[in-house]
Amino acid sequence: MLFFIATLTVSKVKSRVAGHRRATIRAAACTFNSDDHGFLEDEEVNKALREKLLSWYEREHRDLPWRATPFSGELDVDEGAAGSPYAVWVSEIMLQQTKVATVVPYFERWMKEFPTLVSLARAEEDRINELWAGLGYYRRARMLHQGAKLVVEKHGGTIPHETVDLLKIPGIGPYTAGAIASIAFRKAEPLVDGNVARVFSRLLSIDEEPNSKVFWVAAKRALDGKNPGDFNQALMELGSTVCTPKVPSCAQCPLKFECKSRNTALERGLDIEDYVTSFPRKPTKTKQQEQAVAVCVVENDGQLLMLKRPRDGLLPGLWEFPSVEVDCDDEKSDAHRLRRKLRALGFVLHKNRTLQYVGSVRHIFSHIRQQLRIYKLEAAPTNEIDPGIEHRWTREDAVEGSAISTQMKKVFFKSKSVSNPPHGLMDEFVTKRKRKRKRD
Q: Cα-flanking dihedrals φ and ψ of residue 54, to 5°?
């Protein structure tokens, strides 16, 4: 008990010290006006900045399957080749909210399956979801598909060059339009993503949240008109590999001597990493919703029942096991609600055919923290399922490769870890309660 109290006290002290340090850093940061763009108004200094950044990018850039060789100047490339408008579009959509290392294999599989915009426009939704499964933020895939269809219908399959036209395509916002225009078409268009906002915030000591419009002003002023695509990629590369969110490599930064936040930390005797990482200002986080879901893996002769989710809302158009939202703190009602769900689907469940509790897994979305409580049931296929509910029986060995979310893959793997009881399935919770009553 004494050890616990001592640990708690030390934890509180550390928390207060950290809070005081952050307050000191924020006070120092606030001495700079967010409208002070400094050297960005001086074209000579701007030119030196561009040269440093582009020289660094030429040496240090990563070889990525969607990226053309820096300063190649080639505009007439094959449709699916690195640096082509289509390849840039696909990669930029995939890279939103997702790390480069995660995207590479997805991009390569995608381009092999859909090497041209027309092939993507003609693709089936299920196949698109299968290739995207596990990448998250599934709305991106749907919008990419819709965008490809629109380009084929209205532009003859040729991606437009101008940002004003790019912005009319579903799923393309200012950032993606700027990326396609500058990288693929060499248009002098700025772009701002999380990496670029972080670089400018630290470089100029701009004490604003990443979504502030001031970063677009900075990006436009700094832009290299001769090599806009390489310059924009250099900014993103710097933010991704050097000027990282938590542990920046300031000593390796090609712009360290121009960096206002680093120089301020040196002048004031502050810890460089602590001060630099206080930029940009952290946005207020929305509290995540806690949610519990009971899931039933229904099996028949090596096949599992899958239902298709609605095309709107969370995980649109993906396949999942039958599930129902339940009370977070009341596991006793899970079996009852699942049985009611299965009966509504057309299954005839006899009283001696109860559910086997497998265990639970956690899954976190950007706005929801889910606990998935998993059950298993052996049941024969039924012809009574509502025809309005898209469903199918999928072989166990085909489940992982189908269009299911990471959330459902967790459920599937957990269900496989428990073998079926030899004498029918019993709900573990029901069994435990019966035993407890006998003891009482």
A: -70, -35
